[in-house]
Amino acid sequence: METPGAAAPWLVLGLVLGALLPLLAALAGAALRRRGAPGGSPGDAPPAGAPVDDLPGFLEAPPGSAPAAPVRGAGWAPLGGAPAPAAPLPPRVRRERTGSREVLVGMALAAVLLVGAAAAVATGRAPDGAAAEGTRPGPTTPSAGAGARSVTAELVFEGLVLERHPVGVTVAVPRVRLTAGGGRATADVELVTFNCLRGDAPPDPAAAGCTRSVTEHAQLSGPELDVRLEGGVLRVSGAFPTWRRPTGSPPVATGRVYDLAVTAAPRDGRAGDGPEAAAGLLELGDERARTRDDGASTISYAG
């Protein structure tokens, strides 16, 4: 919805066009009427088909009289009477330049200039409105900000299905490190993958005889990472793009992005000071994986 300040330039443009169009129509009509007025000049010659008076010739040579003898040496005598004088051509009518074309061109240029000026005024304020809309603060993400306790978690999960194939599945064993506090949060994810000739993910793919495959890495922080710390429960979520680290080569993006959600809390449900055993859950779509029971997962609070 436009604000009154943003709509004012367009109102000015509409008023200018509304006042300009009737004026242009009136000027164009006056120019056309002036151009269509008769422009003949007085004293024009009669049309070419007017009758010629032959009375003088009749008096000089009446019917039955002998023609006058030709003068010797004057050349060939005419065989007939003297030809009638040719009718004079009508004088060319000089059209007076009324200037209607120049008037119309001038009006068109003036209209273009006025419309352009009004459009410039209307659009001159558009970037301000767009910038104001673009800088509108978005929804804040609850996080472990200033004044909240900082927390660090090291989590090792059981295997979960990362990708299904016509024969077997690709299973990942996730390792997640979470740090949150002081208004900052970061999540580092490592996905150790295995190819298993079965339809589900075993808790320990290596012990189940699955074949080790590549390891994918991901890191997310800042606004892209949603962090929530409520009581002693830490929950982070986000879209994690992954990459691989070939031996002796720079990281290579895999082109895959995983929507992960991780929840971690002390195993006994009480948040104390210093590291303690942690329990957690990792969610990837419909797949779920819990932390292993070997004590490898820890969580630590401070502040």
UniProtKB/TrEMBL annotation:
This is Uncharacterized protein. It comes from the Bacteria. The chain crosses the membrane at residues 6-32, 103-122. Residues 285-295 have a biased composition (Basic and acidic residues). The keyword Membrane applies. Keywords: Membrane, Transmembrane, Transmembrane helix. Residues 35-72, 127-147, 266-303 are annotated as: Disordered.
